[in-house]
Amino acid sequence: MRLFLSVDLIGSTAEKQEGGILPLDAAIHGKFHWEINPFPKWHDPIFNFFSLFDDLMNSAIIRYNNYCDRKNLDYYHSEEDQPKVWKRNGDEIIYTVLLKDAAHLLHAITMFLSVLRKYREAVGYSSDNGKIDKAFAAKKDKRLNGKATIWLAGFPIVNSEFAAQKSPARLGEKKQIPPTLANQYDVFETKNQSQIDFIGPSMDVGFRLTKLADYRKVPISFEIAYILALIDKNIKNKSTLSERCNAINNWRGEEQLYQDTGFFANFFYDGGVTLKGVFGSELYPHFWLRSPYTDIDGTEQKLLGKTACDTDAVLTRSEDVFNEKNKYLLRPFFKGCPIFGKEQPQYSEILSKWNSEFTNHLVMDSELEKNRSEFMENKPGEDLSDFEDVFDNLGLPQR
């Protein structure tokens, strides 16, 4: 399973429109803006977000590694265990990480929300009302607040991973690749000039959930709510999973994230919402985490009657949803995990067929590339469109 963590700027569209398309609108220190900075006025606030958030993520990884060294721990310590940038989509950064177990999910979410907290702290947003501290802002370049969304997606069952080839001979072509290769997509991109895409119903859900995000609420997919509830129920058990979760909670305390209330006291439910096309347009369970540095834990929360989720109630509701929506949902599991280790019916059979089909595709690609090279050697400089006739005569199975 793969976790996706999205952070998007709040108010970036208005910032771009207000700043104008050219750097000519106002005098600064007696000079026009363009004489000091050739970019539009919105340029620096937007680009500061990208560089600052990435820097803070790297700093969080270093702090976590130092924590592990001090405590003599080896939990999610390697580079591949840390969230990495998948893509930048407009004013949004999407990180992803291939999960090893349920505690790894808790680790990645804790790290991501800690970075969001550090970002807000760095740009001057206070915990009182979620608005910019004017005195702070006067001393800094103008920075924008951020909102976050987190979702889970399983591969290669339910969703698919693709490598979009960039080489001229295969422009626009996409081929399916195994999850082990997708996890090394940085190396894969360097060697094969490819970009990994993740496509499927879980990805659609995640992008729909981003529309529900604001500076107070971090929407999470239903499967994450289920895993967090089950972790909370079992975290006191004497098991490897509980040991790892407790170690991560101790690190969360050091990061001053939910320091006074704890992680699971910041887990809420807003009922069902309609996400276009999801669950056949029936209601989707809207769970969310309190975003760090907001006032949702104050008087507004009391007026709204919001209380943290009851773990048992979440698990009971989860069973109902998994049974009612089995057409759309696959219960998440991690092989070898004492709590989440139950493999879903027919999963191994489907995965075996998928691997067999993929192997056939590799053979076809290998044969096609071999004959493509022979064709180019025999007819150098000729149009590759003639190669289609050669391919038709190869006797290879059609896709």
Textual characterization of the structure:
The two termini are 27 Å apart. Helix 4 packs across helix 9 and helix 9 crosses helix 12. The protein is of the alpha+beta class. The strands form 4 sheets. The protein has a 4-stranded antiparallel sheet with strand order 4-5-1-6, with helices on both faces. It has a 3-stranded antiparallel sheet with strand order 8-7-9. A 3-stranded antiparallel sheet has the order 10-12-11. A hairpin with a 2-residue loop joins strand 4 and strand 5 (92-98). It has helices at 12-19, 33-36, 43-71, 102-123, 134-138, 179-182, 185-192, 201-209, 222-234, 240-254, 299-304, 311-324, 347-378, 387-392, and strands at residues 2-9, 27-28, 31-32, 84-89, 92-98, 146-153, 160-165, 174-176, 194-199, 217-220, 267-274, 283-290. Helix content is 44%, strand content 17%.
